[in-house]
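Input (structure):
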């Protein structure tokens, strides 16, 4: 049973210069170093930085290795012991007074979308490092250890599924299954891990935590629109992913009469509009997207014969996910019959909606209130590693606004003030959960 006072961490150890036993750590005597966090975010953005100011750092690629090496060096310099598991997830442990206690996990991911931004995943991982650095500055000894996590392949863009390593940690996939997953070039996860020398020996899922807290940008418009600094995340919506193939008949663009065509691309166009209509028909608690399509051997004067595509639906309600799925299956059947073109839809991943742990949510909310930040409860529209971890440990999330709610786009942006606020909430939530033995320099 996790003991915490939901609000601020109280000094439980002996008397200390600056702060004495029983005093609480608040905004006035303990904050993160805002400039140091902001510099870290912008320093790491160079690993895969794009001319438009975004970041292209696909999981397990050369740029991911660069940021991993930077992260490992920074964690070791902050006094952490860094380990890597069999799927490349990195764990940096700051010792606590009682090392027999399971650590409080904090962190997120450092991989990005192909046209990603500087903050998605990065804020949560580097804010966790800043929490450790701030604890060091204040001379804080926590009761339980604290462990920063950098989860491999949260984005799912190069290898499916998304939140891949945390899903394996939660027991949703075997390590061997994930190691065999291939990218579009036929490279396996195992080969990619070996190429960047991040295939660790620690078995996946063996490292236990008392709780996990993830800071992340909202990636949506609500906090900014309502002028709230913090989102206390209590729910995460469910996600279902599909791989689709359409098999028509390739033939000459000039000589094939329209009624005789079995055009895979025109068929695909109907599927795209069907996904959009199904999501709208089940709104507002549903969204649907087709993000990828690839025609086999495309040629401007050949009617497309075969193509592959991705599709996904999301909803905070499992029952709605079921309805979306059956609506898609019947729409595809209708289009296929009418056009005499074969369409196959294969569900490759389903993540049920997440209900975050009440106690950890209250700890986040308590720290937010004590720090005096405006906030609201919020449901996460995006998937996160914390959503997988919530299935196997007490977990919750902290959101901060991002500009115009934009994410998975090179324009992704956030303010230093909001990132600092989020990191302060992460710091004080972590201390409330880990317990504080002493904080001799917290007041300086
Ligand atoms: O897809 C997601 O929600 C996450 O950004 N990987
Ligand atoms: Mn993310
Ligand atoms: Mn993302």
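Output (sequence):
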């Amino acid at each position: 049973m996790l003991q915490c006072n939901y609000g601020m961490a109280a000094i439980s150890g002996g008397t200390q210069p600056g702060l004495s036993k029983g005093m609480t750590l608040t905004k006035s005597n303990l904050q993160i170093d805002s400039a140091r966090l902001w510099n870290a975010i912008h320093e790491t953005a160079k690993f895969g930085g794009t001319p438009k100011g975004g970041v292209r750092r696909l999981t397990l690629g050369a740029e991911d290795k660069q940021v991993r090496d930077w992260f490992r060096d920074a964690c070791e310099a902050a006094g952490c012991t860094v380990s890597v598991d069999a799927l490349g997830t990195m764990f940096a442990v700051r010792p606590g007074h009682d090392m027999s206690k399971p650590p409080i996990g904090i962190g997120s991911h450092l991989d990005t979308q192909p046209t990603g931004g500087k903050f998605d995943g990065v804020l949560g991982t580097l804010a966790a490092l800043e929490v450790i650095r701030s604890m060091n500055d204040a001379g804080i000894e926590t009761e339980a250890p604290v462990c920063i996590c950098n989860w491999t392949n949260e984005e799912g863009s190069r290898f499916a599924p998304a939140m891949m390593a945390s899903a394996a940690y939660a027991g949703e996939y075997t390590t061997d299954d994930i190691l065999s997953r291939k990218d579009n070039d036929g490279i396996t996860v195992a080969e990619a891990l070996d190429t960047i020398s991040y295939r660790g020996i620690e078995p996946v899922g063996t490292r236990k935590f008392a709780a996990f807290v993830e800071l992340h940008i909202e990636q949506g418009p609500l906090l900014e629109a309502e002028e709230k600094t913090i989102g206390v995340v209590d729910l995460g919506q469910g996600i279902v992913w599909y791989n689709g193939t359409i098999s028509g008949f390739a033939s000459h663009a000039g000589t094939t009469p329209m009624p005789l065509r079995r055009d895979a691309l025109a068929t695909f166009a109907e599927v795209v509009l069907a996904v959009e209509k199904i999501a709208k028909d089940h709104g507002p608690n549903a969204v649907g997207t087709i993000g990828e399509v690839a025609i086999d051997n495309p040629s401007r004067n050949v009617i497309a014969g075969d193509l592959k595509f991705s599709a996904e639906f999301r909803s905070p309600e499992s029952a709605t996910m079921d309805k979306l799925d059956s609506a898609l299956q019947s729409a595809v059947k209708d289009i296929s019959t009418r056009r005499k073109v074969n369409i196959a839809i294969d569900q490759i991943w389903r993540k049920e909606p997440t209900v975050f742990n009440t106690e950890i949510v209250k700890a986040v909310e308590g720290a937010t209130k004590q720090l005096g930040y405006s906030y609201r409860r919020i449901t996460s529209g995006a998937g996160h590693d914390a959503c997988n971890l919530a299935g196997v440990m007490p977990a919750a999330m902290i959101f901060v606004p991002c500009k115009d709610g934009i994410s998975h786009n090179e324009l992704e942006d956030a303010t230093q003030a909001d990132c600092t606020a989020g990191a302060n909430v992460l710091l004080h939530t972590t201390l409330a959960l880990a317990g504080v033995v002493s904080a001799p320099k917290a007041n300086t």
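Notes: The two ends are 34 Å apart (CA to CA). The pocket of manganese (II) ion (ligand 3) is lined by residues 113, 120, 155, 408 (CB under 6 Å).
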